[in-house]
Protein: Damage-control phosphatase ARMT1-like metal-binding domain-containing protein
Amino acid sequence: MPDTPFAPVILGNEPGSFPHSVLAERHPAIIRQVRDAFPYGPGQHRALDDLLKSCTQGTVEPLPDDAPDRDRWREWGLPGCSGRSWYDVPWLWSESYFYRRLLDAVGWFGTGAWQGIDPFRPFKRAELDAQETDEELAALDALPGLPEEERAQALLHGSLWGNRADLGFRLSAEGAEAREPAPSLVADDSAALWALLPPGGTATLVLVADNAGRELVPDLLLIAHLLAEGRAARAVLHVKPYPYYVSDATTADVVDALHRLRAASGAAAEYARVLWSAMADGRLTVRAHPFSCAPLPYAEMPDDLRAEFAAATLTVFKGDLNYRRLVGDRLWPPTTPFRETTAYFPGPVAALRTLKSEVITGLSAATESALVAAEARRWRTSGTHALIQVDAR
Ligand SMILES: O=P(O)(O)OC[C@H]1O[C@](O)(CO)[C@@H](O)[C@@H]1O
Structure:
């Protein structure tokens, strides 16, 4: 990571700012929603009360003595954050630790009956089972008649806009490039992305997934297309080792999404067959590396993960949180070149992201001015703009 006195690390301690509102309002709301969604017992309710108090008015507390990941969190900076207000430590760290503590409170890491019960599962399932998902899967039936490049581009945009989570994704027979999402793209390096994945090549694609449900489904469709058309010989899908940021995808969510696709009809079911057989013969693998839930930027990744990314033809990072971790959770001047912030990365890397936080790099001066003139700062967090950025090396 370059020396960056001009790009301060984002904290959540400024009342009225977006990061502050996440800590002060969104986290308490998540505790409320999780509490309402499960018939938890008194111990879990007490632990949720304690977490609510700690994260809004208290300080960061150490993990319990028997926590299985105590050593890991020590390496990830817990000793330096303990005893400080959740608002005064890096925002990325604070958010990440909140989810770790929430899982503790509901018994995910315990040895009891609630071990491994995902507190966010009802929300993820509801999205996957929604009628909109049926409609999006039915739209796939218009793709098979199109030239490969158009199908590839439509599926790329499906995966990109799938990151807009609550607004769903767009996938149309005409391809997305000529339609509404295109003017919302603040950077579009898709040509460089396709140049790294030519048909009939031997590429290994690593896709670092973000959300489950209506983002993961189009991510899987994109992978299916790349494998079926020989744009990738092998794909590795990185998911989270435990539930995180409410909707982030775990292995269980991959299984749910594959079942959803397999139960559909038409083209969706065909994509499911491609994925199912690619998993069976090892062309598609799922990884749940502990660092996927680390409260740190990818510049601090461990050696085994670095080696894995180094061996890939292209690593694609999906979503806003992964973008923050890829370029560093800092207030970069928006025209800072993307490749400057990813210079540490060991191979070609791409970001597919809708903008949902204040971190941004790689804009042209003209694009930045147009966005500021039209929306002041809103474009940074509204999720209505997106980017495809590539550092091909
Ligand atoms: O699902 P995504 O695209 O990673 O977005 C999650 C986003 O949620 C927030 O953390 C707020 O909680 C964003 O700022 C963050 O990056």
